[in-house]
Write a structure and sequence with these properties.
single chain, 235 residues, alpha+beta, Structural Genomics Hypothetical 15.5 Kd Protein In mrcA-pckA Intergenic Region, Chain A, Alpha-Beta Plaits, 3 domains, nine-stranded mixed β-sheet, four-stranded antiparallel β-sheet, 7 helices, 23% helix, binds uracil
Length: 235
């Protein structure tokens, strides 16, 4: 793999930054400075240092995105912009996919990766990964409705939702809901089961990950090593 591709995939430097760093002697391979960033390395064996920092190789890429309105969480869509379209070209070439879907008009935390095993584990119903959403509803929710939704709501197709947790703000029309599953349009359908309607929905956590408030809508960053370890440890 080319060293500039390696550094870009690891989220360390863009190709332009790598070229500049290489010209200035800032990239070492096994302790020896390379003059150009197009040198090929074996990421599993070679030790790469970028501006004095040893770069650990990770086979997969993990990204946290703040999904904006109107973008679909899919890898391709004939009509709408996808979360993949929001990434730079270099990352679009990797086989990244969103780990779980948000509706087109739901905002907030989406994790993207090319680590199929991890995604499979996190999405499997067995693992009960918690997802917390901030929501606003058209009408206030009553205590009875809250306890019904929390215990398990019967959706229009007869499915009974797993227990959830809801905390409301004083207006009773906004709050947080935490789910351990992710059925199609689940929160919208849960609110519909009590003759109400979601007017705003934003995911704020996914398992151990929290939406990074420094990310604007449509912005993204690589997950930190600690965040990846937390996801991997999530059993
Ligand atoms: N529930 C919904 O209705 N929509 C989402 O995007 C996520 C959960």
């Amino acid at each position: 793999m080319r060293i500039d591709k390696f550094l870009s995939n690891m989220g360390i430097a863009t190709r332009t930054e790598s070229s500049k760093a290489a010209r200035q002697g800032g990239i070492l391979v096994n302790g020896v400075a390379v003059k150009k960033a197009d040198v090929h390395i074996d990421p599993e064996k070679d030790v790469v240092t970028y501006l004095g920092r040893k770069i650990e190789y990770r086979k997969y890429t993990y990204i946290l995105m703040n999904k904006p309105d109107g973008v679909v969480s899919a890898t391709e869509d004939g009509r709408d912009k996808t979360v993949i379209d929001l990434l730079p070209e270099e990352l679009q070439k990797l086989n990244l996919f969103p780990c779980g879907r948000l509706d087109k008009h739901t905002l907030g935390l989406v994790m993207l990766t090319d680590d199929g095993d991890l995604a499979h584990r996190l999405l499997s119903p067995k693992h009960h990964v918690k997802k917390k959403y901030y929501f606003e509803s058209k009408f206030p929710l009553t205590e009875d409705e809250i306890s019904y939704l929390e215990k398990g709501a019967t959706l229009e197709d007869g499915y009974v939702t797993k227990p959830s947790q809801i905390s409301l703000f004083d207006d009773k029309k906004s709050g947080y809901i935490t789910l351990v599953e992710g059925k199609y349009h689940q929160i919208k359908r849960m609110l519909e089961s009590v003759n109400n309607k979601i007017t705003y929905l934003e995911r704020v956590t996914f398992g151990p990950l929290s939406l990074d408030t420094s990310l604007g809508r449509g912005e993204w960053r690589f997950l930190s090593k600690e965040e990846i370890e937390l996801l991997e440890a999530h059993k």
